[in-house]
Automatic annotation (TrEMBL):
This is Olfactomedin-like domain-containing protein. It comes from Goodea atripinnis. Residues 238-515 form the Olfactomedin-like domain. Keywords: Secreted. The lineage of its organism: Eukaryota, Metazoa, Chordata, Craniata, Vertebrata. Transmembrane segments: none annotated. It holds the Pfam family OLF. It is found in: Secreted. PANTHER family: OLFACTOMEDIN-4-LIKE (PTHR23192:SF31), OLFACTOMEDIN-RELATED (PTHR23192).
Amino acid sequence: LSADRAIFPPSSGEGASFPAHRVKERLRWRVWRLNLDALRLWPTCGSALSPAVKMLPFLLLLISTKDGHTQRVLGQNKDGSCHCEVNSTMWSFPAMKYEAVLLQVQTCKGSLNSLQEQMLLSSNYLPQIQAQLVNVTARLQPFQYLHHQGLYTALSLRLLGQELSKLEIDLSSIHTQLNNTQTQKLSKEVGKLRKDVERIQNSDIINIKSVKETLRYLKNSVESCKTIPKDFRGQQRYCLKGLITNISEPITTKISPYGKSYISGSWGRQAQMDTEGEKDSYWVQPLVSSHIWGNTFRVYQTYEDFMASVKHRDYTFAPAYTHANAIEGPSGVLYGEALYYNCYRSADVCRYDLKTNTVKRVTLPGTGVGFNNKFPYCYYDCRLNSDVDVEADETGLWVLYATVGNHGNLVVSRLAWDGEAQTLNVTQTWETRLFKKAVSNAFMVCGVMYATRYLDEYREEVFYAFDTATGKEDNSLALPLEKVVKGVASLSYNPVNKKIYMYNDGYLLAYQTYF
């Protein structure tokens, strides 16, 4: 017992404790000394013992307990030996439990370290997720109008009936003038559509999307009928060759005279076929403010002057970049002695007269005309504020844009300048099914709108055509356009020399077309 108490001394207080290795050492000593069920002591009570010890009727044992107190145990002298029983469970150390708890602590520590590593990785990855979310949200935001403007909701039948009534009036007027098989066919189709609308009103069986698509087709057909002259003698025989079949490699490659730093703008040759003024002129219009706005452009009288960057004349059509007459986006085209372009922060097309230095404008038709970067050319990268695109071809002036009413799809309108009244007018409008932000650019040739898409850093592809003469579209084109760098600011066709002009991020490229 004395040896046992030497290894397990009484606790010195409530806070007394021992290191784990000392506890294990003492536990092994105690197990060696004690029986787990009972402790028996056999000191010899023989002659070797003193008389005082022999006379003890009882043996008092002082044993340290868990709470630091002693335990009194009675012993008996039997057959010359001292016998006593002690319950060892009162002070035994729970070694098995201690080791189990220690193992759990070590396991928990490993789990905590692993969890901390995962949290650290998650903390580092969280900003990337947030950036992706912001990016996706920003990309989706322009498309929210599709939901709010009711792309797939039922249209008002009353408004649909009014639109159909207007179509019937226009068709009746054209039919009175032409009275041919095409107008007769259209009259029958419009009559059938009127019956469908009346059936919808009576039976409440609504298929608005189908009706609206039929109405769009009929409206385009009516607009196409307006284009046919009363006495057609093949004034534009060149356009009878059909669609473009091939486009050459760049036959002209030149850095903009303003430098490569101005990555957005437009350029080309004067596009009016039957004009004497500025007949062989070449022009360049850079967007010098944030690659979005500008107020000047440069004109060269000959191709040689343009290539040598000499003998030019600069025109200022607005006193500041933020003036109402300033240009917005790569939208310009020089047609005759006037520059046509998208007016600053508006759905208007401006006409700047080079002789009189005056500006006239017209507002584009449609519900929710896109401007100020609402419906720019995109496909791969969006070209800032390229919402309104003015083009020219053998038939005259055109403007390409998109509207909320047409669900962001491309709209083609025809422009006409009235020299006597000094007014700019929109005479015809066609609606396509091609989403404007799904194309990288577009241009007009012989009344046909061609659209391009991004292939790679050095190639674009003409993949779509919409014919305003028939209202039909072709999605099977695959005409490559080589380029020097990635971005395409503008594409425009010139009917005088049948070439396409590209403003390629500060590089000026020209291509020959083949039919």
